[in-house]
Amino acid sequence: MTQSFDAAIAAFAPRLPLGVGFSGGADSSALLTACAERWPGQVAALHVHHGLQAAADDFVRHCQALCARLSVPLLVRHVDARPAAGQSPEDAARQARYGAFEALVSAHQTQFAIKNIALAQHADDQVETLLLALSRGAGVAGLAAMPMHWQRAGLHWHRPLLRVAGRDVRQWLRARGEHWVEDPTNQDPRYTRNRIRAQLVPALQEVFPHFRDTLARSAAHAAQASELLLELGAADLAAIGTPPRIDALRALSPARQANVLRHWLRTCHATTPSAAQLAELQSQIAACRTRGHAIRIRVGRAWVVREGALLGCYN
Ligand SMILES: Nc1ncnc2c1ncn2[C@@H]1O[C@H](COP(=O)(O)OP(=O)(O)OP(=O)(O)O)[C@@H](O)[C@H]1O
């Protein structure tokens, strides 16, 4: 199931022109180089400058040098990725990055008309993401890890290297005599992802030599299950109405009720409920048999309340 770097690039068929998320690290340096050589004049590099990181200027300098050698335009956007309360620094940086990519594409629309963006996560990143999801007790959506293709904000996003082992990406770049900038935070043991990479992955490799393939298969099964749950949630919500009728909710099995409640809360833009919040909401719904039983439960920043025969959600 893992692919060689060259096979992954050969199989990649985006609509051109293509934007490549280019951090200056090894993986995106390799992806940008391969794409620029395959589609000369049709690729732009998108770089997000995280001003807070001490090494941010080194990254930009490397990006400028490689783009000049490849004759690729470099579009740079500065972001302030300070985490909001309760948000991890990685999450804040990721959110800021997506916003910056979208803003870059839209600011240069007349010049480049980019509709497709490629990112350079590879098979090892996928394994780390899946193990991180397990460490957090994630549900099927989390265990699906990263999709290879998806749409967001009117753009098509791709991860063409998702089946290529990380060492093969670096080897490809090294064989070309290219350099890259090492992100110093990748070694920082305060981040769980780094401890997974340094300690857990080598142990897994020893016990399950094919763990990259088997974990990728599990992630693909979870992705399929997650899609089915989304479809079921949408169908059930259409049947019980929006806002949901409490008696119709109570007629569902507990698992199906939990699924449709998650789906409804997502449509209300409430945060995904924790397992404890969902269990509390379900036990309150079960207690609604008593006339006048009130429901008032906090879900993230939203409140779920009983309004007669219906549930309401207020952000
Ligand atoms: N500052 C950035 N500017 C532009 N793209 C970025 C930036 N940071 C990450 N990306 C894109 O998102 C992908 C995933 O980022 P992440 O930080 O998880 O990867 P990484 O393993 O450090 O990759 P790389 O070696 O390319 O930096 C990168 O491969 C790259 O395509």
UniProtKB/TrEMBL annotation:
GO MF assignments: ATP binding; tRNA(Ile)-lysidine synthase activity
Residues reported to bind ATP: S23, G24, G25, A26, D27, S28
Subcellular location: Cytoplasm
Top enzyme category: ligase
Keyword Glycoprotein attached: no
Sequence ranges assigned to domain tRNA(Ile)-lysidine synthase substrate-binding in this UniProt record: 246-298
Domain named tRNA(Ile)-lysidine/2-thiocytidine synthase N-terminal: residues: 19-198
Gene Ontology cellular-component annotations: cytoplasm
Transmembrane segments: none
GO biological process terms on file: tRNA modification
HAMAP family, alphabetized: tRNA_Ile_lys_synt
Family as reported in the entry's similarity comment: Belongs to the tRNA(Ile)-lysidine synthase family.
Domain remarks: The N-terminal region contains the highly conserved SGGXDS motif, predicted to be a P-loop motif involved in ATP binding.
Record's function text: Ligates lysine onto the cytidine present at position 34 of the AUA codon-specific tRNA(Ile) that contains the anticodon CAU, in an ATP-dependent manner. Cytidine is converted to lysidine, thus changing the amino acid specificity of the tRNA from methionine to isoleucine.
Protein name according to UniProt: tRNA(Ile)-lysidine synthase
Organism the protein comes from: Melaminivora suipulveris
